[in-house]
UniProtKB/TrEMBL annotation:
The lineage of its organism: Bacteria, Pseudomonadati, Coprothermobacterota, Coprothermobacteria, Coprothermobacterales. One of its GO terms (molecular function) is dihydroorotate dehydrogenase (fumarate) activity. The keyword Cytoplasm does not apply. Its EC number is 1.3.98.1. The keyword Oxidoreductase applies. Residues 5-267 form the Dihydroorotate dehydrogenase catalytic domain. This is Dihydroorotate dehydrogenase (Dihydroorotate oxidase)(Dhodehase) (Dhodase) (Dhod). Its cofactor is FMN.
Amino acid sequence: MAGAVRLKKLTLKNPFIASSGTCGYADADLIPLDKFGAAVTKTITLLPRQGNRPPRLVETPAGLVNSIGLQNMGLEAFKQFLTDFKKPTTLIVSVGGESPEDFATIVEELNTYDLIDAFELNLSCPNVKTGGEVVGKDYVTVSNILEASLKSTTKPLLVKLSPFTEQLDKILQHWESKVEAFVLFNTFPAMDIDPRSGKPVLGAVSGGLSGPAIYPIVLNSIYKYSKAHTLVASGGIATTDIAKKFIMAGARALEIGTGNLWNPAFIEMLLKEV
């Protein structure tokens, strides 16, 4: 049975983290969040976002394609939400933005909240100012965001990267000693088509693929980089056997996403079998 794990500053009662987008603002009723080592909120942006037009989710034979579009209440409403919020476990707030200033402002505004244990910088979300590229597309953009964020908070920072982040080796090497952990990875670009209409199923046409289809790709990177870096695995951890493989590959903790959506009691299985 999996016990407590330590990243750097952050200690979790077990290595399982409910990933952003699958547990609301760490207030989902259907998932027993108190059993997780940590829970990551929906990504918070400066201003509220309505998200993409529906449909937003489609199942595929080995995964789930989502196109939520970072729908969230925005920073000010989230601060009000925290006033009466009782966290179920270690609380990690996911932060998104379109510039280093956006990230720095959000973490600075939330830095004084004692119930927040850490931040996860979502550097794999689309940036509308640069034509849909991920925010953390390369070493320079990632570094600018991290420099601004580290100056704005005393809390641990986890950094969630895209599988297509350029200069990944350089990013990991330079920032390893300065951040709490790297989360590898977010979803992979994907879409599906309705065979009857011939039209894309998702309202936004394309989205991100999660689920078992992507785990061998993520596992490869975890195995490659875990000896020198503090890594949290994220991608396709939908069975207990897959979870065991990521731990064997060197992941310190595991973010569970699609597994929670398919089975809200999946954490019970993980705690018993991994």
